[in-house]
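Entry: FAD-binding oxidoreductase
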Amino acid sequence: MNTKSTINYQEIAKELNGIETTTNSDRLTKLSLDYYHFSPILTEQLQNKRGELAAFPTTEAEVLKIALICVKYKIPLTVRGAGTGNYGQCIPLEGGIILDTSKMNQIQWLKPGIACVQPGVKMAAFDKQARKIGWELRIAPSTYRTATIGGFIGGGSVGMGSVNYGQISDRGNLRRVRLVTLEETPQVLELEGDRVQKVLHAYGTTGIITELEIPLAPAYPWQEIIVTFDDFMTAASFGQALSDSHGIVKKLVSIHASPIPSYFPALKNYIPQGKHCALLMVSEYDITPFQDLVQEYQGEITYSKTAAEAAKGTSLLEFTWNHTTLHARSVDNKLTYLQTFYFTLERLEKLYQQRGDEIMIHLEFLRAGDKAVPAGLQLIRFTTGERLNEIIRDRESQGAFIANPHVYTIEDGGNKQVDPQKVAFKQQVDPYGLLNPGKMRGFRE
């Protein structure tokens, strides 16, 4: 692989004639970064990483042209969506070219239950069109307004809708993907069925996605509701009961232990100090049985907006998943987070009792196999990396699973083991290791 000093990127830009490019340092800084600064550990490791040139293709043919240039000169290539990730997925560790997919933003076709899109299509913009025929995305992150579909497939995992459809890696949540390789002669491949797993959450290390075929969910009028509780475990039990209530259609079940709601100034009129809360999206058609469930768990509905009313303001989604961390850090930048799967309320209660002053628990219910389980992004008052790792080891020793957001490799932040199929596929499609180098530990080793 070439080093920065041996490549003249002004000349490379000339070879990419016809494709928009930039070498402007300010734009490159912005295009080289994501929300890695949620982690004080990644901040130290990644804050000075920059690309040397950014390219903005609009077609698959232009992507092939960029791929050919990268292979010709052995230039590292990092693919980028909207840059809404949190652990350096799109940060170029070895410089080179940044391929920004934001202008590949066409909906190729849209049918009931399924759609075909370019990777740069923004999620909210897509849903605006899909809802016209009664459908919407199955799963979307808290960055829904700005995130791209390709970026979420390449770097995300869960979000609103996961209480129904699980994670994007669950079978059927991506139907087909078309991608460009970085072989000696770049080519276009299509993957279907279980083969799409080779690109899911791969940070763009296993090919440049140019087209996706995605399944859709029926669109409901989602009423947004806040329920408050005096006791956290009652709130968590309510969240479990709602998630298990198959007759109540919902899209978001998010539980926040006090004092987390105090970090949401926009919601202060609806969540009294010291209260725990549930931030919810429930079908308007199911409000009566939902209200009965709230009464059973002695909760109080303090905020309720119909779908039409919610569409005019800030969605409750903006306070859930990792936007919880975003709001908390805007008040106290010493806070960070850990992605934690508790699996059972019994384990959750045990860990809640052990939390101390440095840990605040925030739950998101999602489907894992045939069950809805409590997971979440607990807030951590950061002191040292050693203490953070101690918390991780302690939680895991008690049966919780931590997807560590303080590392930038695919394996260490996910299931903590090398996926031999992904590694073999990368060896096939990227034999020179040019795609987002340094992010797949299995390939490096």
